[in-house]
Structures are given as structure tokens and as C-alpha cells.
Amino acid sequence: MSGQTSWDFDVFVGFPGAERAFADRLVQMLRVQHLKVWFDGDQIAAGGPILDTVDRGLEVSRHAVFILTSEATSYSSYEIGFFAGKSSARSAPRRMLGVQRASLPLEKLPPPFRQAKVMTWLDEDDPAERFCELYRGLLGKAPISRAERIVLGHQLLEGSPVALVAESAAEQEANTRSRIRWGGAQAALGCDRAEPWNRITACATTTRSEAIFIVGPRGQGHDLLLDRIEECLPEDARWPRRIHTVSWGEDDPVPAVPSSRELFLEAVARAVGLDAGSQPAELIATLKHLLMEQNVILLHRPVVEEDFERPDLLLYYTQYLPELVSALPSLPFGLKPVQSLAWLSATWAKGVLARLARRLNLRVQSHGGGWVRTCLQSHDATEMLHQIRVQQHPLLPVLVLDPLPDITPDDVRKFCEDHLPPNECGRFVEFVTRGAKSSEEILQRISERLSKKRSV
Questions:
Q1: Where are the beta strands (DSSP E) in 302-394?
Q2: Residue 146 near residue 235, CB atoms below 8 Å
Q3: What b-and-e string marks burial along 228-245, b requiring 16 or more CB atoms within 10 Å of the CB?
Q4: Contact, 294 vs 240, CB < 8 A?
Q5: Structure confidence by residue, pLDDT tens digits, 67-81
């Protein structure tokens, strides 16, 4: 950007006084990318003419970033209008980006931004992702997915000593967790998860109600895939969506699937922001309001790992949720529950013995810690999924994804070819696969290794 000799500065940063601290940190991030930034703290001398200096800065800066708040000032409105007027008079392309620090109604936006996309950058947002979005906007690059913005954003900020440093210890810790979790882990989840991920994202771009089941043996990284849905599901203006987490047994020592219609619906009500004890009519009204504006994805946690022989989950997906959907009028968007099941695998011989023991009703649970139930988990889960398919309601069809497969060294090698320099692939594959007992462990090692590389 700074190769244009006709510009003294790459970007002008304008802001209201209340956002000076945020503007300071943003300017530092831009300068890490070797951009020449016009910023009043550096350009206006004590006692110097403010308006003339600002006018000059707007004239000689190729692009501009304006930080927008509900407390618009005459100064910021003047700067935006001045830059917009000068841009239309120039033949060279100039870009003007608006960054709102809170979601503003259209009438609160300055007129030049009412016909353009304005990005939102809240205090709780991942700074790396937001900076990547802004930086690519300045470069005129095409939009990319949120997952890609997170990974690229951390790469852009690598080596920055002050890149949006948290203002408190709690914020600093949260940003560190975000960097570790979504810098490496998000990329790691691309390893041999393309097929289920593509089907999940395709489902998110339809407006019909549909339940999605992510299934497979334990150790395949079910939780990580749910994390990826929660944090990295692509956003599309044509199919807006909101994700709500339905927590089962969050206050219990051992979380379990609810055992009644009331407990199931109470968990859904909590997920969409209602108080405990709210009435079904309140839940229906809330869902109706949400579904007028976007798809609602109900992400169920934790992963269900036992009690597959119980009828509770079957009733939830074939009766309770369909009844909830049927109580809603025809709406422009759909309800999309996401459920994950993970079972313990057993050898063929143990499975045969366990089925025989159950058929004979042998009381063997006191010997070996309930081995019959353990060995029959795969059988019971498969049978339950079969019954859910058979009894699925037309208002809530069911999509059961293929069981998550084992991740092999070949999968990791292909992943390396897409993400790492060729000279690093051999050592990387060796590190993440040697002695790994499960696919989940491989994914965690990939995440750990990538996070370390990006934090050096």
C-alpha cells in the first residue's frame, strides 16, 4: 500500500475522544504491518492549528478508518464528510472503512456509511480476527470465512509487542486462551474433517428446520468439532444464524441427558436467554422472534457418551422438539439442533457375549463395573439412531453424519502440505502421530504445535 508515491500516508485514523485508547492500539497494529498512519497524536503539535492539520492529513492519506460510536461529534462527522468528498473527486481508488464499537441503528450511522458495510469491533471480540477483517478491507481483498480470519489475523499480529494488549489481567488471559484455542486448534480441525464440516455448513445455509447428529467412537474429537461449529461456522448475509448452547446437567457432578419433557424444554429456554421456570408460551414467543431474523442453531453440550438404551433422547428428537416446531407459525428461518454421540468400542467377541448376557437378563453389573452396558454402547447408539430416523417428524427431519473416522498419518501429511513449508512436514507428522492413542490426541498435538509456532 505504501508503494504509492502520491500519498504521504497509507491510512488516516479518525476517532471520537472516548475511543482514544482503542485508536492507539489500532494504530500500533497497523504500523506493525509497515503502514504509514496519520494519527492526530503524532501530527498535531501543541498549539498548532487543528482543523488545517486534519484537512491536510485527510488530503494526503490514501485510505481512512473511522471509529464510530453512538456519541457522534461534529469533528468526526466533518472528517468523514471531508474524506468522502475528496475521495469522489479523485481518480485513484480510496477506501473508507467504518468500525462501529457497538451495533448502531442505520439512522445513527454517518450518511456515507449507510450504503456500505460497516464492521463491528466489540471489546469481547477476538482482536486478531477483527484486525484481519479491517486489514483485508484496506487492501481491497475479497471476504474470507471467520475461521480463516482468525488464523490469518494471528499471523498478521505475530511479533507485535502491543497488538491490542488487554487492559486487565482477565482480558489478557482471555485473549491468550483465544489465541491458543483458535490459532492452532481451528486449523487442526481441518485435518480429515472436510466431509462432516461441509455437510454441517451446507445445512446452515438452508432455512428449513433440521436436526444434525455428529457420531462416532470416543476419541475422535467430538468436542473439538462442536467448538469449531460454535466459533468458526461461516457467516453468510443470505442465511444469518445465531448459535445457542443447550447445556444439560451443567450444575450436576455428572452431566446427564434430561429425563422429562419439562427438563428438556427448560434447558432450551435457558439457552435462548429465558429464566428458569419460564412457561412454554414464553419459549415459543422467543423462538418465533429469533426465527423471524435468522436460523437458530441449538448446540447441545456435553457430548452424550452413555445411556443410549434409554428412550429420553429418542423422545426429545421425535416428539418434544417437533411439537415445539409445530407450535411455531410458518417462519422465514429454521431451528437446527446439533447433537453429538460418542461411544466406547468393543471387540466383536465381547459384543456377542454382552448381547447374550442381556438377552438372558444376567445380573452381571456388579462384576466388572457394568461391562455389558459398556460393550453394548455402539450397538445401543446405532439402534437409537435407527429409531430416530424411522420415527423422525416431517417438521424436524434428521441428518445423521457418517461416524467420524480415525485420523491417519496420511491425513496429517496431506494437512501439512496445505499448511506448512515442505521442509517441516516430516518432523511435524512424526511429532503429532508417534504414540498417539486417538484422533483427538492427534488434533490436540496439531493445535499445540501450531500455537507454539505462532507464539514464538
A1: 335-343
A2: yes
A3: bbebbbbeeeeeebebeb
A4: yes
A5: 998 876 556 778 888
User: DSSP letters of 200-261?
Assistant: HHHHHTS-S--EEEEEEETTS-HHHHHHHHHHHPPP-TTS-EEEEEEESSTTSSS----SSH
Strands (E), 101-228: 119-120, 211-217
d(CA 435, CA 429): 12
Within 10 angstroms of residue 363's Cβ, the number of other Cβ atoms is 9
- pLDDT tens, 223-255? 888 888 887 787 777 888 999 999 987 555 556
In the sheet that 37-38 helps form, which strands lie side by side, from edge to edge? 37-38, 9-14, 61-68, 96-100, 119-120
Task: Note the pLDDT of residue 181.
Answer: 44
Going by C-beta distance under 8 Å and a sequence separation of 6 or more, which residues neighbour residue 99?
26, 65, 66, 67, 68, 118, 119, 120, 121, 134
178 pLDDT above the threshold of 60: no
Prediction pTM value: 0.58
Angle made by CA atoms 285, 289, 295, in degrees to the nearest 5: 120
d(C-alpha 424, C-alpha 376), whole Å: 43
Residue 440 has pLDDT above 60, yes or no: yes
Q: What is the dihedral of CA 192, 195, 198, 199, to 10 degrees?
A: -140
C-alpha cell at 447: 493445535
Backbone angles phi, psi at 175, to 5 degrees: -65, -35
10 Å CB burial of residue 443 (0-12, 13-18, 19+) is: buried
Rg, C-alpha atoms of the chain? 27
Structural element, H or E, at residue 51:
helix 50-60
Task: Name the strands in the sheet holding 335-343, side by side, starting at the edge strand that comes first in the sequence.
Answer: 241-247, 295-301, 335-343, 211-217, 398-400
* Distances 279 to 52, 269, 270, 325 between C-alpha atoms, Å: 62, 9, 12, 16
Distance CA 411, CA 227 (A): 21
Q: What's the mean pLDDT when you consider all of the chain?
A: 81
Cell of 188: 487442526
Are 14 and 64 within 8 A, CB to CB? Answer: yes
